[in-house]
Amino acid sequence: MLTPTRQWFRARHGIGLTEPPRSQAFCNYTLLQHDVFVVEDAIVDGRFRDNPLVTGEPHIRFYAGVPVHDADGHRLGGLCVIDRVARAFDARQRRQLSVLGEAVSEKIRLRLVDRRAKWMGATL
């Protein structure tokens, strides 16, 4: 998820990074997309080659992300895959990440519906 000043990893595996500055977040680009955003080799991508997350720890080379949104369609952040190795990302993998991103977005929508229902039940 993103705040105005930082990126916050809600869940992570294999990376020690927890809250990099928003100015360094690959996710900023993901939020501008309607579908999957891929950087197959960050070290040769002009947008990222000087990024401290590429030139230093965690030495990101590959990134693929999809926007996660709430029930009103507001983009909250992204679901992403990061690697220290450059790699290709084919159409099947893009579809899989897109499906996972939609599942996360749906979970957020369902959680909001559940909270509203509980709140309405408490006020009756």
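Next protein, fold it too.
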Amino acid sequence: MQNLTKNPTRLNLLDFTKEELEEIISPRFRVKQIFEWIYQKYADDFSQMSSLPRQMRENLSEKFHFSPLQCMKFEQSADKSIKYLFRLNDGLLIESVLLPMKPEILDEKGRVLKHTRYTICISSQVGCKSGCAFCLTAKGGFKRNLTAGEIVAQVLWIKKQNKLPYERRVNLVYMGMGEPLDNLKNVAKAVRILSDNSGLAISVKRQTISTSGLARQIKELGELDLGVLLAISLHAVNDKLRSELMPINKAYNIAAIMDAVRNFPINARKRVMFEYLLIDGVNDDLSQARELVRLLNGIKAKVNLILFNPHEKSPYKRPSLEKALSFQDFLSTKGISCTIRQSKGLDISAACGQLKERSINNS
């Protein structure tokens, strides 16, 4: 996508749902064609939309653009993870990550039996208000919410850049920079745009919204009934420690979060994901695993253990794999589905905010 900041009066077409565009573009059937050109054929500009009349293409280019960000830098890990640094049209920076989760499988003749399975981690804000002690994003403070189109553009750009056909299934996690539920209106709109069958058609069942535990907004998200999956960044099992790690806990304590989760609509075959960041000597012993079992009693839960990804501005350390396995084994023996997230991108700026921070310091 080319940069189109020279005409700031034009609207970002990616900010609109198909239904909204049908109210302002006539005839309405052209909107479906526009969606297909942008999201399925990966058009760079309106001039390429050959199925539209020439005059309409010219009129559209005067009113709209669909290039709200530029890739300023990227780093690729040995494990094929790619971290992207994007500049928005107002000059602010955000990050996104492409994560290969399962490798490509070929038959004996070299034909593809199964394509690589990808997850795309996207940002919802420039900076973050939550102020988590272990997170580098919080150190830069909060600048603003992303628009729905700026959220959508991250996915579109990454799929296009990596030549992933629109129909190639990917999973999306709203786990990048920012607190998604602090920008619920735009995140919910992005979910609808990304899942539209005329566009990228990414099922809501493949979209996971992660939150640090904004109980009121969890309730609001549930009432929207989008069908997305929910992930809770828990990271501690008592309010004292959680408030130290995550100041948002002073507003929404663990009990409030659990009440909101218990009332969240979830598909019968799905579970609520609880993200638990293991930090060496802080929250990784078996007494805390035991308390976690108690907290999750009665909830269809899955626990995702994450080994802390160290960065130079943090006092925290990464725990040993042995301690993580011990924690996992305890939960599993108590009947709780538990995985250890495979660490990605440890040889690049993998933690949220690292690539941005390094780029600013080196500029």
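About the second fold: Residues 1-5 have pLDDT under 50 and may be disordered.
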